[in-house]
Amino acid sequence: MGRIDDGAAALATGSGDGGVKLHRRQFLLAPRAFAVAPDWICEPFGTTHVLSHCPDLIVTKTRDADGVPWALLGRAVPIAAGLPDPKTAIERATTDSVPDLSYDWAGRWLLLTPAHAYPDASALFGCVYCTDHQGAVWLSSSPTLLAGAALPKEPDLIDPRVLVYEHGVSWFPPPLTRYGGIRRLLPSQVLRIGDGGIRSRPMMPPIEPIDDVAAATEWLATALTDTMTRLQQATGQPLWLGLTAGFDSRLMLAIAKSAGLDVRTFTRLTERMTIADRVLPPRLARMAGYPHRAMSDTGRHDDRGRMLRDHAPGQISRGDAEPFLRGVRDTMTGISIGGHGFAIASGFSNWRSMPESMPEPAEATAMFLKWRGEPVDSPAALGLEEWFRWVQQTPQARLDWRDRLFLEQRQAGWLAAKEQVHDMDCLERFPILNAASLYARILGIDARSRLGSRLQRDLIETLQPEFLDLPFNPRDRTFLARSPHRVLFRRLYFLSRSLNRRLTQPRPM
Question: Which helix (H) or strand (E) holds 278?
């Protein structure tokens, strides 16, 4: 990890092939300016800090009705057609009322005043922070930049694990990071920039039980359609949608088609993908009248590993970094939309099979580690147990701890780190669903009416019912009659992977 000294750019910067750029869309809020690259923008923010950021990061500055300055980092889009844009909303509001307005903003963003930092609905625009030897608080989207700029020496690795794709706890559980002294802000927290203190904040508006599921489904369909429409209107750029055989991307397709938006669909080809993920996306795109592109590795990218080590060393698994390392999205410009977060409506990875009542923090930590296949003495236990204690101290009415686990660990921990890596791409990623008011409305629906992707199915039926004609995630054997060669290839792939694991597994002494 490089060091940054006296505001100079000691880390390697610049663009790689395909338009990728080291530290793109990153920022530092610090007691002094830090131009990580020659084109970085450095401006005072408040009386004690300077906001330094990549010019590719959207920064909206304004003042509220009380005259207090605000800075919105990242892209935020209101979830209803009649709502004002965030800048206008802030200018019309008093200081105390601004944070609640942000519940209606979708996207990845961080909201700042000189006194406080407020994360988005699941902290997908990650915010990490620390205190230097003089007691000053530093903030950044990048643990690497923060460690290199704020701390006098390289911090200890309190979680030295090498993350493995889809195995165990494949992230560094917030509110901790892998670095000692650097913490990650949770969606349920507000950071006091003056002293680094934390106070709790409801993650979303009050969750009200919903009796009329059909009406709630209509409301969600309208809100999601309005959000996607306003996104395209605000940017004037093409929207890219990665299609699979699953529920979430098909729902995004239904929203785009219903709104009559200009969308380009694609599917990333990988060895491990199912046959359905290869075969169904082009058919879905034709049904919607959109072009479809199969995306594969664009060639050798010898500098990608180095860029990943400089930008976010060890922050995500190699499997999660694969699209960046292989340059799959290099030819794409504009904005990529996705259904990130909809797993909260489907019971992600059967997380809802855990007990309805949260155990005590130590017990809950051991249970979750075992359930994920992570050793009980894993360093991941440190962050998890602290998070369970925080949840115990700061409950929110009707917010199930398992749903909060998904939002504050899987989203704010795993996905936020992954998004920060993909910030290096020219293509911007935008999570349509990531708005606190949308989460509150979804969680107000009884679990029996939304889990198992039932809500996604109902929304698709509301928007584009013909999209239900194709199956969701059918098994490989479904294609045996029409594509026996694909089924055979998949069987051989998994057989070779299983044999490789056995051969490389350490033998007991």
Answer: helix 275-288
Contacts of 104 (CB under 8 A, 6+ apart): 78, 79, 80, 83, 435, 436, 437
Q: In this structure, are residues 451 and 352 in contact, taking their beta carbons and an 8 Å threshold?
A: yes
* Burial of 240 (C-beta count, 10 Å sphere; 0-12/13-18/19+): buried
Q: Where are the domains of the chain?
A: 17-200, 213-344+429-479, 480-509
Residue 411's contacts (CB-CB under 8 Å, 6 or more residues apart) are 122, 123, 124, 187, 340, 341, 434
Please identify, in words, the CATH class of the domain defined by 213-344+429-479.
alpha beta
Nearest CA-CA partner of 25 in 502, 383, 424, 443: 424
User: What is 17-200's CATH topology?
Assistant: Glutamine Phosphoribosylpyrophosphate, subunit 1, domain 1 (3.60.20)
Across 470-507, b (16+ Cβ under 10 Å) vs e yields: bebeeebebbeeebeebbeebeeeeeeeeeeeeeeeee
Q: What is the pLDDT of residue 15?
A: 47
Element (H, E) at 72: strand 69-78
The residues near 498 (Cβ < 8 Å, ≥ 6 apart) are: none
Tokens found for residue 282? 């082009």
Can you spell out the DSSP letters for 95-111? GGGHHHHGGGEEEEEEE
* Two structure tokens written together for 291: 């072009």
Question: Angle of helix 247-259 relative to helix 213-235, nearest 10 degrees?
Answer: 70
What pLDDT is recorded for position 12?
36
Q: How far apart are CA 332 and CA 185, in angstroms?
A: 31
Chain Cα centroid distance, residue 242: 15
Three state DSSP letters for 132-201? CCCCCEEEECCHHHHHHHHCCCCCCECCCCCCCCCCCCCCCCCCECCECCCEECCCCEEEECCCCCEEEC
Measured from the Cβ of residue 40, the count of other Cβ atoms closer than 10 Å reads 20
Q: Among 177, 173, 131, which residue's Cα sits nearest to residue 152?
A: 131
Residue 77 belongs to what H/E stretch? Answer: strand 69-78
- Tokens for 458, please give them: 């109902």
pLDDT, block means (10 residues), the chain with 509 residues: 40 54 97 96 98 98 98 98 97 98 98 98 98 95 95 90 95 97 98 97 98 97 97 91 95 97 92 87 97 80 88 95 89 89 75 91 97 96 98 97 96 97 95 97 93 94 98 81 60 56 46
Asked if 303 and 16 count as a contact pair (C-beta separation under 8 A), the reply is yes
CB atoms within 10 A of CB 320: 21
* Residue 498: its H or E element: helix 484-504
Q: Which two tokens stand for residue 442?
A: 């979804």
* Cα distances (angstroms) measured from residue 342 to each of 71, 168, 248, 249, 335: 28, 22, 7, 10, 19
pLDDT of amino acid 196: 97
User: What is the C-alpha separation between 177 and 172, in angstroms, rounded?
Assistant: 6
